[in-house]
Design brief:
This protein is 53% helix and 12% strand. By secondary structure, it is of the alpha/beta class. β5, α8 and β6 form a beta-alpha-beta unit. α1 packs across α3, α1 packs across α17 and α13 packs across α16. The structure holds pseudouridine-5'-monophosphate and manganese (II) ion. The site of manganese (II) ion has 3 residues, from loops.
Length: 362
């Protein structure tokens, strides 16, 4: 009989192996103490319950305190209510964490208190070795979710190609990471602070599957339901989305997917009004010579100030809605996996891997 903790670690290891055909980096991640997964998430992964990953830059740099902490907790509740387990990813004292307590969210959310670093791929080494706190961006969260084997993650909006990106070269690392992580992201597209057509082109180049979630192919613009761009595909419901994710995994494509969910109609902002606000915010950024990783948080802060909180209301509503969609898809992925496991009998790939690992452990 294997010790319970050991069994969890082995099951996690199996879960990981289901997604990747190598074991070394996962073992190293756990054994070096760089990654810590909380009990709830660990149990869910080991038992193959649906799990939804969540980013934390939205908490540290995306929304103001205390709305950010409340929103993070509400989002987790939405996911639980749909029958999935939330795994908010962040870095605390140099340790990457999957699954946070309320106190930990509070620490991250109060930026003045703990000074968290906005963490994308390039920032991890610094944040970890300096034992700092970090909010993981979409790109940072994708890396961690992919390593742990969480197939789906919810957020508000992903980063993209910035306006005038052709001269500034400011293209979010989110797009590159999406191209090489076997994780599906559910977002309301990208904000029109960015260049949406160029962002879609770039996603195509990176090999990212992009679809709207719902009846139309109108690619959303975060605060509003249409951007004027069309997505290559539209997926009508969670069952179909899960089948798409499953196909990517069966083919072992190792690339990501973006499901773009328009903001619910009742929370959508007037397109013209928000465009004007965005133009003003961009002008402010130019005047203040804001660049690099500062630009997205700067624009977000300006937009909610200029709209007197109206944009914040919309922002929070769409994040919650995206979390619900992601949880429904996670539940459907679970059903598909169970079906494929039972139809292939005891000699399934997963069972064989579990046997492999048990042998290896003993
Ligand atoms: N877009 C939003 N809200 C956000 C972000 C983007 O509407 O909070 C955050 C996300 O964490 C995203 C990051 O991954 O900003 C992108 O930053 P950059 O453009 O510096 O890559
Ligand atoms: Mn950038």
């Amino acid at each position: 009989m294997l010790h319970v903790a050991k069994k969890f670690q082995l099951s996690l290891f199996c879960n990981f192996r289901r997604f990747h055909n190598t074991s070394e980096s996962f073992e190293r991640l756990i054994n070096s103490g760089v990654l810590s997964i909380n009990e709830e998430v660990k149990y869910a992964l080991a038992e193959q319950h649906p799990v939804v990953a969540l980013e934390s830059t939205i908490i540290t740099h995306g929304l103001p305190y205390p709305d950010n902490v409340k929103c993070a907790m509400d989002v987790e509740n939405e996911i639980r209510q749909k029958g999935a387990v939330p795994a908010t990813i962040a870095i605390l004292n140099g340790v990457i964490r999957a699954g946070l307590s309320i106190e930990e969210m509070e620490t991250l959310g109060n930026i003045a208190k703990s000074n968290p670093i906005k963490t994308s791929r390039r920032d991890f080494p610094y944040v970890i070795s300096n034992k700092s706190n970090g909010g993981t961006t979409v790109s940072g969260t994708l890396i961690v979710a992919n390593k742990i084997g969480i197939p789906i993650f919810a957020t508000g909006g992903i980063g993209g190609v910035h306006r005038e990106g052709e001269t500034t070269f400011d293209i979010s690392a989110d797009l590159i990471e999406l191209g090489k992580s076997q994780v599906a992201v559910v977002s309301s597209g990208v904000k029109s602070i960015l260049d949406i057509p160029k962002t879609l082109e770039y996603l195509e180049t990176q090999g990212v599957f992009v679809a709207t979630y719902g009846a139309t192919k109108d690619f959303p613009a975060f605060y509003s339901r249409k951007s004027g761009c069309q997505a290559p595909y539209s997926i009508p419901n969670a069952t179909e989305a899960a089948r798409i994710i499953s196909s990517t995994r069966n083919m072992n494509l190792q690339s990501g997917m973006l499901f773009a969910v328009p903001v619910p109609e009742e929370y959508a902002l007037n397109d013209e009004e928000i465009q004007k606000v965005i133009e003003r915010a961009l002008e402010e950024a130019r005047k203040n010579d804001i660049r690099g990783k500062q630009i997205t948080p700067f624009l977000l802060r300006n937009i909610w100030e200029m709209t007197h909180g109206k944009s914040l209301h919309t922002n929070i509503a769409l994040i919650k809605n995206n979390a619900k969609v992601a949880a429904s898809i996670a539940v459907e992925i679970g059903k598909l996996e169970k079906t494929s496991k039972s139809s292939s009998g005891t000699g399934s790939r997963i069972d064989r891997q579990k046997d492999d690992i048990s042998n290896y452990a003993d």
